[in-house]
Amino acid sequence: MPLGVLLLSILTILILFGFAHTVLDRMRLNDKTAVFFFIAMIIGTFIPNIPLGSKIGINLGGAVVPMVLVVYLFVKAGTGKEKFRAVLASIISAAIVFFLSRYFTGEEYSSIFSDPFLIYGIVGGLVAYIIGRSRRSAFIAGIMGIVLADIAQVIANIVNGVPGRINIGGAGVVDSVVISGIIAVLLAEFIGEAREKMGGGTDKKHMHFDHGEFASTLGENKVEDNDKSKNDFNEGGNKDEK
Asked: Compositionally biased, Basic and acidic residues: which spans (predicted)?
């Protein structure tokens, strides 16, 4: 069983038992939707590649479903700044993974690294978190960075006249996609939690979590205090009239 399929199966089970509810909620992704996409990726991995021409194909589980998930999350992104970070992180992650794949080509590296796709997934996830920062942006960049790098490799193969059929999202790409997405979210979750506890414990007492982002409640409290003062004044005036 491919590593990506195994990880997706484990994630699906964890979600069904409620162990990932908090993380998914912060990404504005409910349990049912996450399970649907993960199962679709698992099934899509075993479906034959869809031909896009005489020499190019695309895999459902390794490219189509992940891109649909990315678009779904991107539309739900809270702010324009978050969307910008997601796009920027995706492009930079893709560029680094692409050039890394050029470096780790050859039998000498295959003997050192049993599965280069594992390296691509780890690097993609790290870059996605560093630039994306938020859970949602990091996850989007973690997935899209690998897919874009694979598309770039396909284009390079066509330009260089590499013989044979080329598939987007095929082979071990699904492993890299899953690993990259998981690492990006885990880093954003654990490091984000640690930073909030260490540096934001007192600073965020006036904050509340709204639509996947922290929002200030200071203005709300001030309005409530003003309304309360007005009500007290009106009540006092009514008593004096009596």
From this structure: 221-242
